[in-house]
Amino acid sequence: MIRAVCLMGPTASGKTAVAIALAKALPLEIVSVDSAQVYRGMDIGTAKPSPAILAETPHRLIDIRDPWEPYSAGAFCEDAASAMREIAAAGRIPLLVGGTMLYFQALQRGMARLPPADPDLRRDLDMRAARDGWPALHAELQALDPETAARLKPGDSQRIQRALEVCLLTGLSMTELHKATQPPIAAEYLNIGIVPQDRQALRARIDDRLAQMLKQGFVEEVRALRQLPQMSASVPSMRAVGYRQIWAHAAGEAGLAEAAQKAAAATRQLAKRQMTWLRSWPELAVFDGLGGTAEVPMHKLITAWLAGGASAHISR
User: Fold this and answer.
1) Is 59 helix (H, G, I), strand (E, B) or coil?
2) Which of these three, 157, 179, 201, is where a domain ends?
Protein backbone atom coordinates (compact mmCIF):
# COMPACT_ATOMS: atom_id res chain seq x y z
CA MET A 1 0.00 0.00 0.00
CA ILE A 2 1.18 3.52 -0.80
CA ARG A 3 2.28 5.58 2.19
CA ALA A 4 2.04 9.37 2.20
CA VAL A 5 2.65 12.27 4.56
CA CYS A 6 0.10 15.10 4.64
CA LEU A 7 1.28 18.47 5.96
CA MET A 8 -1.68 20.77 6.57
CA GLY A 9 -1.90 24.26 7.98
CA PRO A 10 -3.47 27.69 7.69
CA THR A 11 -2.27 30.25 5.20
CA ALA A 12 1.00 32.02 6.09
CA SER A 13 1.94 29.39 8.70
CA GLY A 14 5.18 28.42 6.97
CA LYS A 15 4.14 25.11 5.40
CA THR A 16 6.22 25.52 2.25
CA ALA A 17 9.48 26.23 4.05
CA VAL A 18 8.98 23.26 6.37
CA ALA A 19 8.05 20.97 3.47
CA ILE A 20 11.13 21.95 1.47
CA ALA A 21 13.39 21.30 4.45
CA LEU A 22 11.79 17.89 4.98
CA ALA A 23 12.02 17.00 1.28
CA LYS A 24 15.74 17.79 1.31
CA ALA A 25 16.36 15.60 4.35
CA LEU A 26 14.08 12.62 3.66
CA PRO A 27 13.03 10.58 0.58
CA LEU A 28 9.94 12.76 0.10
CA GLU A 29 8.50 14.39 -3.01
CA ILE A 30 6.14 17.34 -2.63
CA VAL A 31 2.60 17.37 -4.03
CA SER A 32 0.87 20.74 -3.73
CA VAL A 33 -2.60 20.76 -2.13
CA ASP A 34 -3.57 24.30 -3.07
CA SER A 35 -6.61 25.22 -5.15
CA ALA A 36 -5.00 28.46 -6.40
CA GLN A 37 -1.41 27.38 -7.07
CA VAL A 38 -2.68 25.05 -9.80
CA TYR A 39 -3.14 28.13 -12.01
CA ARG A 40 -0.48 29.50 -14.33
CA GLY A 41 0.14 33.23 -14.03
CA MET A 42 -1.06 33.38 -10.43
CA ASP A 43 2.29 33.45 -8.69
CA ILE A 44 2.56 36.40 -6.32
CA GLY A 45 -0.91 36.30 -4.78
CA THR A 46 -0.74 32.55 -4.15
CA ALA A 47 2.72 32.72 -2.52
CA LYS A 48 3.85 30.17 -5.09
CA PRO A 49 7.45 28.98 -4.65
CA SER A 50 9.86 30.73 -7.01
CA PRO A 51 11.08 29.05 -10.21
CA ALA A 52 14.50 28.61 -8.57
CA ILE A 53 12.98 26.82 -5.58
CA LEU A 54 10.80 24.65 -7.81
CA ALA A 55 13.85 23.73 -9.91
CA GLU A 56 15.72 22.65 -6.80
CA THR A 57 12.77 21.03 -5.01
CA PRO A 58 10.06 20.08 -7.51
CA HIS A 59 6.40 20.43 -6.50
CA ARG A 60 3.71 18.50 -8.35
CA LEU A 61 0.28 20.00 -9.20
CA ILE A 62 1.56 23.55 -9.57
CA ASP A 63 0.91 25.44 -12.85
CA ILE A 64 -1.30 22.72 -14.34
CA ARG A 65 -4.27 24.88 -15.41
CA ASP A 66 -4.83 28.16 -17.21
CA PRO A 67 -6.46 30.72 -14.90
CA TRP A 68 -9.78 30.70 -16.77
CA GLU A 69 -10.17 26.92 -16.48
CA PRO A 70 -12.16 25.26 -13.70
CA TYR A 71 -10.51 22.97 -11.17
CA SER A 72 -12.34 20.88 -8.60
CA ALA A 73 -11.77 18.57 -5.66
CA GLY A 74 -12.60 15.67 -7.96
CA ALA A 75 -9.94 16.74 -10.48
CA PHE A 76 -7.47 17.16 -7.65
CA CYS A 77 -8.14 13.63 -6.39
CA GLU A 78 -7.44 12.19 -9.82
CA ASP A 79 -4.26 14.23 -10.26
CA ALA A 80 -3.01 13.57 -6.72
CA ALA A 81 -3.66 9.83 -6.92
CA SER A 82 -1.72 9.67 -10.21
CA ALA A 83 1.16 11.65 -8.71
CA MET A 84 1.23 9.48 -5.60
CA ARG A 85 1.45 6.30 -7.69
CA GLU A 86 4.33 7.71 -9.75
CA ILE A 87 6.23 8.89 -6.68
CA ALA A 88 5.75 5.54 -4.91
CA ALA A 89 6.85 3.66 -8.04
CA ALA A 90 10.10 5.67 -7.95
CA GLY A 91 10.72 4.48 -4.39
CA ARG A 92 9.86 7.77 -2.70
CA ILE A 93 7.14 8.98 -0.32
CA PRO A 94 4.56 11.59 -1.39
CA LEU A 95 4.51 14.68 0.84
CA LEU A 96 1.17 16.41 0.28
CA VAL A 97 1.39 20.03 1.42
CA GLY A 98 -1.18 22.81 1.48
CA GLY A 99 -4.12 24.52 3.05
CA THR A 100 -7.04 23.44 0.86
CA MET A 101 -8.62 21.24 3.50
CA LEU A 102 -11.47 20.07 1.27
CA TYR A 103 -8.89 18.49 -1.04
CA PHE A 104 -7.27 16.60 1.84
CA GLN A 105 -10.70 15.39 2.96
CA ALA A 106 -11.73 14.27 -0.52
CA LEU A 107 -8.44 12.44 -1.06
CA GLN A 108 -8.51 10.53 2.22
CA ARG A 109 -12.23 9.97 2.70
CA GLY A 110 -13.57 9.90 -0.83
CA MET A 111 -15.81 12.14 -2.85
CA ALA A 112 -19.24 11.44 -4.23
CA ARG A 113 -19.59 10.98 -7.96
CA LEU A 114 -22.30 13.56 -8.53
CA PRO A 115 -24.17 14.05 -11.80
CA PRO A 116 -23.31 17.03 -14.00
CA ALA A 117 -25.49 20.13 -13.91
CA ASP A 118 -28.76 19.94 -15.80
CA PRO A 119 -29.57 23.38 -17.28
CA ASP A 120 -33.28 22.62 -17.79
CA LEU A 121 -33.75 21.37 -14.25
CA ARG A 122 -31.86 24.34 -12.83
CA ARG A 123 -34.02 26.70 -14.84
CA ASP A 124 -37.11 25.05 -13.40
CA LEU A 125 -35.76 25.32 -9.86
CA ASP A 126 -34.89 28.99 -10.40
CA MET A 127 -38.43 29.68 -11.63
CA ARG A 128 -39.93 27.94 -8.61
CA ALA A 129 -37.63 29.88 -6.30
CA ALA A 130 -38.66 33.16 -7.94
CA ARG A 131 -42.28 32.24 -7.33
CA ASP A 132 -42.12 30.60 -3.89
CA GLY A 133 -38.76 31.70 -2.45
CA TRP A 134 -35.65 29.67 -1.64
CA PRO A 135 -36.89 28.88 1.92
CA ALA A 136 -39.71 26.89 0.29
CA LEU A 137 -37.19 24.88 -1.72
CA HIS A 138 -35.10 24.45 1.41
CA ALA A 139 -38.17 22.90 3.07
CA GLU A 140 -38.51 20.54 0.11
CA LEU A 141 -34.86 19.57 0.49
CA GLN A 142 -35.49 18.95 4.19
CA ALA A 143 -37.94 16.21 3.23
CA LEU A 144 -35.59 14.64 0.66
CA ASP A 145 -32.21 15.05 2.36
CA PRO A 146 -32.54 16.26 5.97
CA GLU A 147 -28.81 15.97 6.76
CA THR A 148 -27.78 18.21 3.87
CA ALA A 149 -30.64 20.63 4.55
CA ALA A 150 -29.55 20.96 8.17
CA ARG A 151 -26.15 22.26 7.03
CA LEU A 152 -27.63 24.90 4.72
CA LYS A 153 -29.30 28.20 5.45
CA PRO A 154 -32.75 28.70 3.85
CA GLY A 155 -31.32 31.44 1.65
CA ASP A 156 -28.28 29.48 0.40
CA SER A 157 -29.65 29.34 -3.13
CA GLN A 158 -26.65 27.80 -4.92
CA ARG A 159 -26.22 24.85 -2.55
CA ILE A 160 -29.96 24.23 -2.16
CA GLN A 161 -30.33 24.17 -5.93
CA ARG A 162 -27.46 21.70 -6.32
CA ALA A 163 -28.69 19.40 -3.55
CA LEU A 164 -32.20 19.30 -5.02
CA GLU A 165 -30.77 18.78 -8.51
CA VAL A 166 -28.82 15.72 -7.29
CA CYS A 167 -31.88 14.28 -5.56
CA LEU A 168 -34.11 14.74 -8.59
CA LEU A 169 -31.57 13.44 -11.12
CA THR A 170 -30.37 10.37 -9.22
CA GLY A 171 -33.20 9.49 -6.85
CA LEU A 172 -30.59 9.53 -4.06
CA SER A 173 -29.66 12.26 -1.62
CA MET A 174 -26.24 13.88 -1.52
CA THR A 175 -25.88 12.37 1.96
CA GLU A 176 -26.42 8.87 0.59
CA LEU A 177 -24.03 9.44 -2.30
CA HIS A 178 -21.30 10.79 -0.03
CA LYS A 179 -21.64 7.85 2.36
CA ALA A 180 -21.31 5.39 -0.54
CA THR A 181 -18.04 6.85 -1.83
CA GLN A 182 -14.59 5.36 -1.66
CA PRO A 183 -11.25 7.21 -1.57
CA PRO A 184 -9.58 7.53 -4.99
CA ILE A 185 -6.50 5.61 -3.86
CA ALA A 186 -5.70 3.04 -1.18
CA ALA A 187 -3.09 4.69 1.01
CA GLU A 188 -1.80 5.02 4.53
CA TYR A 189 -1.46 8.63 5.65
CA LEU A 190 0.53 10.33 8.37
CA ASN A 191 -1.35 13.56 9.02
CA ILE A 192 0.65 16.48 10.40
CA GLY A 193 -0.86 19.85 11.20
CA ILE A 194 0.84 23.20 11.67
CA VAL A 195 -1.49 24.85 14.19
CA PRO A 196 -0.09 28.19 15.41
CA GLN A 197 -0.86 28.85 19.07
CA ASP A 198 -0.25 32.60 18.84
CA ARG A 199 -3.15 33.89 16.74
CA GLN A 200 -1.87 37.46 16.83
CA ALA A 201 1.48 36.31 15.44
CA LEU A 202 -0.29 34.50 12.61
CA ARG A 203 -2.37 37.60 11.90
CA ALA A 204 0.80 39.69 11.75
CA ARG A 205 2.37 37.21 9.32
CA ILE A 206 -0.72 37.40 7.10
CA ASP A 207 -0.60 41.21 7.05
CA ASP A 208 3.16 41.29 6.45
CA ARG A 209 2.93 38.75 3.64
CA LEU A 210 0.21 40.72 1.87
CA ALA A 211 2.29 43.90 2.15
CA GLN A 212 5.22 42.02 0.63
CA MET A 213 3.02 40.68 -2.18
CA LEU A 214 1.95 44.23 -3.05
CA LYS A 215 5.59 45.33 -3.16
CA GLN A 216 6.41 42.38 -5.43
CA GLY A 217 3.75 43.40 -7.97
CA PHE A 218 0.50 41.71 -6.94
CA VAL A 219 -1.58 44.50 -8.50
CA GLU A 220 0.37 44.28 -11.75
CA GLU A 221 -0.11 40.50 -11.77
CA VAL A 222 -3.89 40.91 -11.53
CA ARG A 223 -3.88 43.61 -14.20
CA ALA A 224 -2.04 41.23 -16.53
CA LEU A 225 -4.64 38.55 -15.83
CA ARG A 226 -7.43 41.02 -16.63
CA GLN A 227 -5.91 41.53 -20.09
CA LEU A 228 -6.45 37.90 -21.03
CA PRO A 229 -9.56 37.62 -23.23
CA GLN A 230 -10.86 34.54 -21.41
CA MET A 231 -10.68 36.16 -17.97
CA SER A 232 -13.41 37.82 -15.96
CA ALA A 233 -14.20 38.42 -12.31
CA SER A 234 -16.51 35.39 -12.37
CA VAL A 235 -13.98 32.68 -13.34
CA PRO A 236 -13.25 30.25 -10.49
CA SER A 237 -9.61 31.30 -10.07
CA MET A 238 -10.63 34.87 -9.25
CA ARG A 239 -12.59 33.67 -6.26
CA ALA A 240 -9.24 33.01 -4.58
CA VAL A 241 -8.67 35.09 -1.47
CA GLY A 242 -6.79 38.28 -2.35
CA TYR A 243 -7.40 38.05 -6.07
CA ARG A 244 -11.05 39.04 -6.01
CA GLN A 245 -10.26 42.09 -3.84
CA ILE A 246 -7.30 43.23 -5.97
CA TRP A 247 -9.36 42.58 -9.13
CA ALA A 248 -11.92 45.09 -7.82
CA HIS A 249 -9.13 47.65 -7.41
CA ALA A 250 -7.73 46.93 -10.88
CA ALA A 251 -11.24 47.36 -12.29
CA GLY A 252 -11.52 50.79 -10.67
CA GLU A 253 -14.14 49.67 -8.17
CA ALA A 254 -12.04 50.25 -5.04
CA GLY A 255 -8.95 52.12 -3.94
CA LEU A 256 -5.78 50.16 -3.24
CA ALA A 257 -5.94 50.77 0.52
CA GLU A 258 -9.54 49.54 0.67
CA ALA A 259 -8.79 46.50 -1.50
CA ALA A 260 -5.73 45.62 0.57
CA GLN A 261 -7.70 45.94 3.80
CA LYS A 262 -10.43 43.66 2.46
CA ALA A 263 -7.86 41.17 1.16
CA ALA A 264 -6.17 41.00 4.56
CA ALA A 265 -9.53 40.54 6.33
CA ALA A 266 -10.55 37.78 3.90
CA THR A 267 -7.21 36.02 4.37
CA ARG A 268 -7.61 36.13 8.15
CA GLN A 269 -11.07 34.61 7.79
CA LEU A 270 -9.63 31.89 5.56
CA ALA A 271 -7.01 31.09 8.21
CA LYS A 272 -9.75 30.90 10.84
CA ARG A 273 -11.72 28.40 8.72
CA GLN A 274 -8.59 26.34 8.10
CA MET A 275 -7.87 26.21 11.83
CA THR A 276 -11.44 25.01 12.44
CA TRP A 277 -10.91 22.18 9.96
CA LEU A 278 -7.65 21.22 11.64
CA ARG A 279 -9.19 21.12 15.11
CA SER A 280 -11.72 18.56 13.88
CA TRP A 281 -9.22 16.40 11.95
CA PRO A 282 -8.80 12.93 13.49
CA GLU A 283 -5.39 11.57 14.50
CA LEU A 284 -3.48 14.73 13.66
CA ALA A 285 0.09 15.24 14.89
CA VAL A 286 0.12 18.95 15.83
CA PHE A 287 3.07 21.35 15.74
CA ASP A 288 3.12 25.10 16.30
CA GLY A 289 5.36 25.94 13.36
CA LEU A 290 5.68 29.71 13.77
CA GLY A 291 8.75 29.53 15.98
CA GLY A 292 10.82 27.75 13.34
CA THR A 293 11.36 24.74 15.60
CA ALA A 294 8.96 22.26 14.01
CA GLU A 295 11.25 20.73 11.38
CA VAL A 296 13.36 18.58 13.73
CA PRO A 297 10.45 16.94 15.62
CA MET A 298 8.56 16.47 12.34
CA HIS A 299 11.64 14.81 10.85
CA LYS A 300 11.79 12.45 13.84
CA LEU A 301 8.07 11.67 13.62
CA ILE A 302 8.20 10.89 9.89
CA THR A 303 11.32 8.77 10.32
CA ALA A 304 9.67 6.78 13.11
CA TRP A 305 6.49 6.38 11.05
CA LEU A 306 8.41 5.11 8.04
CA ALA A 307 10.11 2.62 10.34
CA GLY A 308 6.75 1.50 11.67
CA GLY A 309 6.94 3.16 15.06
CA ALA A 310 4.32 5.92 14.80
CA SER A 311 0.57 5.82 14.36
CA ALA A 312 -1.18 7.14 11.28
CA HIS A 313 -4.62 7.74 9.86
CA ILE A 314 -5.31 4.87 7.45
CA SER A 315 -7.60 5.25 4.45
CA ARG A 316 -8.25 2.17 2.34
Assistant:
1) strand
2) 179
